[in-house]
Amino acid sequence: MEFSTLSEFDDELAKLLKKYRSLEEDILVLKAVLAKYPRGYQPVIFQINNLGIKTEIYKIKHFRCRALHNKGSRSGIRIIYAYLEAQHKIEFIEIYYKEQDDLDCNKDRIKAYYR
User: Fold this and answer.
1) In the beta sheet, which residues pair with residue 57?
2) Residue 100, beta-bridge partner list
3) How far is CA 48 from CA 27, 60, 65, 75, 91, in A?
4) Which candidate in 7, 9, 22, 108 could, as Cys together with 67 as Cys, close a disulfide (CB 3.0–4.6 Å)?
5) CB-based contact 26:66 (threshold 8 Å)
6) Closest CA to 58 of 40, 85, 76, 73
7) Domain residue extents for the chain
8) pLDDT tens digits for range 51-87
9) Full-model pTM
10) From CA 86, how far away is CA 89, in angstroms rounded?
């Protein structure tokens, strides 16, 4: 399985790394899981529908971040990725901390990159 990121994802990750230093290592663990289950499994990872595109887009809601002590998989960090089955590739699109309300993913960014 090949993994890549959008430049926007890299920028968002850099900002979050300042506060959550274990995030880079946590994403390596996530990649190992996604290599086995690229389409995820509910309720942890679920597909985002009604985008009007053919590419499969998924949202990770239960992401374990070691820097957030006593939170476990309910850390509040959300990751959006695209699964490109023909290329056997996962591309990370967006990462954010949900804060008080769970923001919806950046649909404009998704539509700009995928069809």
Assistant:
1) 82
2) none
3) 20, 10, 22, 20, 15
4) 22
5) yes
6) 40
7) 2-101
8) 889 999 999 988 877 767 666 555 678 999 999 999 9
9) 0.88
10) 8
What count of residues does the chain have? 115
Decide if 90 contacts 83 (C-beta within 8 A).
yes
Give the residue, 111 or 43, on which the prediction is more confident: 111
Contacts with 33 (C-beta within 8 Å, 6 or more apart), sequence order? none
The one-letter amino acid at 49:
N
The CATH class for the domain spanning 2-101 reads alpha beta
Tokens of 77: 């960090």
Let me know: does 60 contact 40? Beta carbons within 8 Å: yes
